[in-house]
Amino acid sequence: MHIVVCIKQVPDSAQIRVHPVTNTIMRQGVPSIINPYDLFALEEALRLRDRHHGQVTVLTMGPPMAEDSLRKALAYGADRAVLLTDRHFAGSDTLATTYALAGAIRKVSETWSPPNIVFTGKQTIDGDTAQVGPGIAKRLNLNQLTYVARISSFDLKAKSITVERRAEGGVQVLASKLPVLITMLEDSNEVRRGTMTDALRAARSEVVKWSAADAGITELALCGLKGSPTIVKKVFAPAARAEKAHQIPVTDRSWADLGTAVMEAIFTRRPGIEADLAQRAEGYR
Predict the structure, then answer these.
(1) Is pLDDT above 70 for 5?
(2) Torsional class of 187: left (φ above 0), alpha (ψ -120 to 50), beta (otherwise)
(3) How far apart (Å, rounded) are the C-alpha atoms in residues 5 and 1?
(4) Contact 38, 189 (CB under 8 A)
């Protein structure tokens, strides 16, 4: 079994600031981390590997400094790391990113073996588009299972997988044939701590580095800024809310009375919510 996990090195959003004059993101001095959602994808891949044997390849596209995140992934227990890095990829939006990553996954298939599963996080904390996973699936003609909260069953011999997908209004249970691409939700598992053995192995392991030519990506007009139709017009910090929080005194009310008071306050201030809930309730009858 072979699993590919796509990760991204992102700036730590907890330490990002917006410039008060230019309204641009200030990245200077902000440390880089593995996209948190990708850690849940990596953990799920490692769990499947541990149960069914095989290998986990971690792939990322980025500048040379992204090697740090790949080594961290190796320290968690991944078997192999591939860095797709080339100046032609600079400025890529999600469309250009999926083109490059899909090409790299094809190269991974040729170099080692075709993956049974490709994992990604549900989205990244810097872009928040949730488009890269589905975009890769489309380019590679893979079935896609997005917003997966749990893998219910996995049968490598039958080439089948069943997952629980979180959706609006409930949970969907979906079955698919392999190969498949899965995007994992946050808190879908508990990310392990890497062992000392894995940490030492990560320090001395070779990170495979591919340029566009190495990965067999020939249509450079589809990469980087040239292949990116998305234009960011403005980045700004959200304005502080002028409306103050509505306080409800607790006094000696019971929990039931307090709950009723909260709901009444919400419906009074947001009458549209009550009408929406009533309409949904009618739909379930």
Answers:
(1) yes
(2) left
(3) 13
(4) no
Element containing residue 199 per DSSP (H, E): helix 196-204
Question: Contact, 9 vs 60, CB < 8 A?
Answer: yes
Nearest-Å Rg of the Cα atoms of the chain is 22
Under DSSP, the state recorded for 161 is E
Count of CB atoms situated within 10 Å of the CB of 252 = 5
Peptide bond into 179 cis (omega under 30): yes
Task: Note the residue count of the chain.
Answer: 285
Query: Could you report how far apart the first and last alpha carbons of the chain are, in Å?
Result: 46
Better-scored residue on pLDDT, 204 or 240: 204
Answer whether 113's CB lies under 8 Å from 240's CB: no
- Global pTM value: 0.82
Let me know: does 193 contact 186? Beta carbons within 8 Å.
Answer: no
For residue 143, the one-letter residue type is N
